[in-house]
Design a protein that fits this description.
The chain is globular, with a radius of gyration of 19 Å. The protein is α/β, with parallel strands linked by helices.
Length: about 260
């Protein structure tokens, strides 16, 4: 009986750790921590990356970390304001924390959860416009909107057809606001199409948990996990493999290289 109880406690403890790492662990250098300690010595450009789990990076490739490694030595400070599960409405609700960082640049990667939750496109676009308007009114930051990556790798399937108007709204918002549009969806889709047919969209919480188990406990790379699930750019039909994360890091690196320091 004692052995059984011990095994159960170990299982529960291990699951709790896994859930924390995959879903509740804060990102590296979130806004609250950054505001407490301030920019590191030598930093001349503060960039806030604003978004959902694709930016948070506890379940997805850490493209913000890649930027930190590439550009940090040159004086760039990256504040990760991504939170798992968030929508445009959530971003609106915590916009003050981004403004308080007094950023020189802000990237916004959002739309996956709005599309999956069936938020009307008109409301999504209104929220996005308000986010941009408030950032322009209360900061001097340059802003880039990224299109939302594919929902699964069946680019002609229902999930990506439903996503299309959200990405159109992102592009239109960027154009109307006079800010940069970065084609994350388009770049990732190019690589997916080069790999031929793909399985239909089949995201589930259970699949995401299995990805977390393989990544954190079995130490498998996100690329290997994606391949094991019959995918290339996405691990569980939503979250980014390392290949996809590199593409996004490349887009943002290119944009920041064209963004002069204040």
């Amino acid at each position: 009986m004692t052995v059984a109880i011990t095994l159960i406690l170990l299982l529960v403890g291990g699951l709790s750790v896994l859930m924390y790492l995959a879903f509740r662990r804060p990102p590296v250098n979130p806004p609250k921590k950054f505001r407490t300690r301030g920019p590191r010595p030598g930093a001349h450009t503060v960039t806030v990356t604003f978004g959902d789990s694709l930016t948070h990076a506890s379940l997805s490739a850490d493209w913000v970390g890649a930027l930190r490694e590439r550009l940090g030595p040159g004086g760039h400070e990256f504040v990760n304001a991504g939170i798992n599960g968030h929508t445009t409405a959530d971003l609106l609700g915590r916009l003050e924390e981004v403004v308080a960082c007094q950023p020189d640049a802000v990237t916004i990667l959002i739309g996956t959860n709005d599309a999956r939750n069936g938020i009307p496109v008109t409301r999504f676009q209104t929220n996005l416009e308000q986010i941009v308007d408030q950032l322009q009114a209360h900061t001097t930051a340059r802003i880039a909107l990224l299109s939302a990556p594919p929902l699964g790798e069946d680019l002609d399937g229902p999930a990506n057809r439903e996503l299309a108007p959200y990405n159109a709204a992102i592009k239109q918002t960027a154009t109307c606001a006079g800010i940069t549009y970065l084609p994350a969806y388009e770049r990732i889709a190019e690589h997916i199409r080069s790999n031929g047919t793909a399985p239909r969209f089949a995201f589930s919480f259970g699949l995401a948990l299995r990805v977390a188990l393989q990544h954190y406990l079995l130490r498998r790379s996100l690329n290997d996990i994606a391949t094991g699930n019959g995918l290339t750019m996405l691990t569980d039909h939503i979250h980014l493999s390392d290949q996809a994360g590199t593409l996004i890091a490349d887009l943002v690196t290119g944009w920041l290289s064209r963004t002069p320091a204040r």
